[in-house]
Amino acid sequence: MESIIHICFSQSAGGSLKHAVKKKKLFEGKKVIVFPDDISIGIIQNGINLSERLKWVDSINKEDERIRLEEIDYLKRAYKQFYKEISNIKDTDVIYLWYGECCSDICGMMYALELLKNKIENIYFINVSEKIYEGNSIIYTYRAVAEIITEKLKEFIKIRRKIEYKEYHDLINQWESLKDNNSILRIFKDGKVQAVSEDYFDINILKYTENEFRKCTRIVGSVMGYSEEKISDDYIFWRIGELTKSGMLEYKGKFGIMREMEVKITQKGIEYMSTDSEAISFWRSKETEKQFERDKINEAKNKGRMEERINIAKKLMYILDVEVIAEKTGLTVMQVKNLIN
């Protein structure tokens, strides 16, 4: 008897699928297998090697020991579990590969195809980005399985489709090409995964960094929220660290600890960003808005201080001399005299 195996490519997606299958029983499934790693970032040259993956995690989290140790421990256990579960898939099992049109999902999916090369006859795709939603004057699609709440997952079973041989070979060829490249960053653009330079997101990072110190969490959130390509917060924060080391950003707080580190752009960073006319125009526009807000805040503060000084001077009018009142409140002698008159 055939059984359905669901495979997805992030912890979050795995949690939702397991809840849908085991707890809510929204659709059939013998097992949910989760690939634990985001292989859109880091070295994949010559194939997925756990030792290399752990070195990558160590390199981007070396300043935050707690995160680094937790991530390394998790990947060791999760990779072992993943390979064990993949090897236990039977020839009669039907396999649903869940993914969206984001690089982390698609890279994971292509790696799964490599591992499941002898079971192509039984593989179905569920590409959640193929389903279009319309409502409340908004048209949207999901970029990743992780974005979908448990209760909605059942709707996507209807769009499953069996993989075609040509499609399989095209994806495997694309995967082999990526493995031949020594890039540490891949993005999904123009309908396919592309290897790009590690500084691909640097202009965007500078674009959302102000000339006053701001929390790194805020900058990371802006880059991720406005980027056309889905990217992990770990990668963006690592690039913030690299830009800081190169002098394009200045920091305060604990370097390498996202929740405790603040950065602002330097003149060198502004000059580098100026090579992108759209980015520098956007940044200058935002800075003009921020300066206007700062001026209004200072104006309100100064107004509040002046009112406070006047109130104090009025209370002291019949107690102290005009000159003494002026000295204590910061008002001029003539200002105090005019209050009396």
TrEMBL record:
It comes from the Bacteria. This is DUF1835 domain-containing protein. Residues 5-128 form the DUF1835 domain. Residues 157-262 form the DUF3658 domain. It holds the Pfam family DUF1835.
